[in-house]
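This part of the workshop introduces the protein records we will be handling. To make this concrete, we reproduce a full record directly below.
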Amino acid sequence: MNPCGTGENLRASARGARQYFTLDGDTTAAQISVSAAYNQCKAPTLHPFGGRTYYVNVDCAGTSIAPAGQSQHRREVQFRIASTGTWDPSNDWSYSGVATTPGATPVLARNITLHSGATRAPDPGA
């Protein structure tokens, strides 16, 4: 996760990110697991949003995420969402527009939102 992005000027108040997804079929939240192989923030957590929509929250509170230098302006989190039930990520709001081919050129994922607490931060360039 690089909240400031190259050349982007996001508000320094952004302290975390959310990836939204919808449970498919008969899948329940108990069948969803979230893990992180590499994490420079707090461990990702699963939260209900409404109905069958959930989100993974990546909380970076307490760390500086501001354009202050090469290593200071970003935090990296690699997390995995897995399901023992049926789940099709291709129809999820946050998945829209994300490059799915390994080695593909990175894209700006506008549907993975930045937050400061419960408040959504402005989109990059806004």
Residues 1-13 have pLDDT under 50 and may be disordered. The radius of gyration is 15 Å. The beta strands are 16-22, 32-39, 45-50, 53-59, 77-83, 112-116, 119-120.
